[in-house]
Write a structure and sequence with these properties.
Radius of gyration: 22 Å
Oligomer: single chain
CATH superfamily: AhpD-like
Distance between the termini: 22 Å
Strand content: under 5%
CATH class: Mainly Alpha
CATH architecture: Up-down Bundle
Number of helices: 14
Mean pLDDT: 94
Order of helices and strands: HHHHHHHHHHHHHH
Structural class: mainly alpha
Length: 249
C-alpha cells in the first residue's frame, strides 16, 4: 500500500469515527449498519447525520429523545431488531431505568388496537342489512367512565367500539393502562411516545396522532416538543439504506 493510500485510509477512518461520534451525541446510539453506508457513500451518510443533529436539536430532554426513538423502533409496524438494542442501551445511558424502558415497550403495544378503530366502522357500513343493537346505555357509561379514569381521556373515535364491543373495550382499557403501573414516565412523555408511533411513516394513523397531540398539550407539552417528535420519527426513512446497502456490498 502506498503512502498516499495509507493517508487516504486514515482520513477516511477519522471521518467515519467523527460521524459515529456525532450520531451518538445526537441520538444516543449508533447503528452499526451505517458503517456500510459510510463506506459506500460518505456524503450521504454525512447528510443523514446532519439531519439527525437537526432533529435532535430541540426542547426535548435527552431521555425523551431516546424513548421516542425506542418507541418507533419497537412499534409493531416497524419492529427494527437491528436498531433496537442500541436504542435500549441509549435510553439506559441517558438515565432511563430498566422499568422505564419496559414501560415504553408495553405502552407501544397498544398500537394493535387500531385494527379495530379502523375496521369496525367500515364493517358497520358494509353490513347495513344486519341488526346490530347497541349495548345498554348503563353498560356503555360504566365502560367509558373506567376508560376515562384509567387512561385519562376520552375521544369520540371510541364510540363505535363502546356501542358494539363494550366488553372488549373494557378489557382493552385494562391492557392499555397496565404499563402505567411502572410509574416511571410522566403523562406528557407517555403521550409524546404515542404521538411518535402514530405519526411514524410505518403507521401514519392521523386520528390517533391528533388525539395524542391534544393529550400531550393538555399535559404541558409545547408545540416545539411535539414537532421535535415528528422530526425524530422522520429519521426512520434511512432504514431503506440500512437494509439495502449491506446487501449491495
Amino acid at each position: 500500500m502506498s503512502a498516499t493510500t495509507a493517508i487516504e485510509n486514515d482520513d477516511s477512518g477519522a471521518a467515519a469515527a467523527a460521524l459515529r461520534a456525532r450520531c451518538r451525541a445526537a441520538l444516543g446510539s449508533w447503528d452499526a449498519r451505517l458503517d456500510a453506508v459510510i463506506e459506500r457513500d460518505p456524503a450521504y451518510a454525512g447528510a443523514f447525520v446532519a439531519l439527525a443533529e437537526a432533529a435532535a436539536d430541540g426542547p426535548l430532554s435527552a431521555q425523551a429523545k431516546t424513548l421516542v426513538l425506542l418507541a418507533c423502533d419497537a412499534a409493531m409496524t416497524y419492529r427494527n431488531r437491528d436498531s433496537l438494542p442500541g436504542r435500549i442501551q441509549g435510553a439506559l445511558d441517558a438515565g432511563v431505568p430498566p422499568d422505564g424502558v419496559l414501560e415504553v415497550l408495553e405502552l407501544v403495544s397498544v398500537l394493535g388496537v387500531h385494527a379495530l378503530n379502523v375496521g369496525l366502522p367500515i364493517a358497520l357500513e358494509e353490513y347495513p342489512e344486519e341488526e346490530r343493537p347497541e349495548a345498554p346505555p348503563a353498560l356503555q357509561s360504566r365502560v367509558q367512565q373506567r376508560f376515562e379514569r384509567l387512561r385519562g381521556y376520552w375521544d369520540a373515535g371510541w364510540r363505535p367500539v363502546l356501542a358494539h364491543l363494550p366488553g372488549f373495550l373494557d378489557r382493552y382499557t385494562d391492557f392499555s393502562a397496565a404499563s402505567a403501573r411502572h410509574d416511571v414516565l410522566d403523562a406528557k412523555t407517555r403521550e409524546l411516545v404515542l404521538v411518535a408511533i402514530d405519526a411514524s411513516s410505518t403507521h401514519m394513523y392521523a386520528p390517533g396522532t391528533r388525539i395524542h397531540v391534544r393529550n400531550a398539550r393538555a399535559h404541558g407539552a409545547t408545540f416545539g416538543e411535539v414537532v421535535q417528535v415528528f422530526q425524530l420519527a422522520s429519521l426512520l426513512g434511512v432504514e431503506s439504506c440500512l437494509l439495502g446497502v449491506p446487501l449491495l456490498d
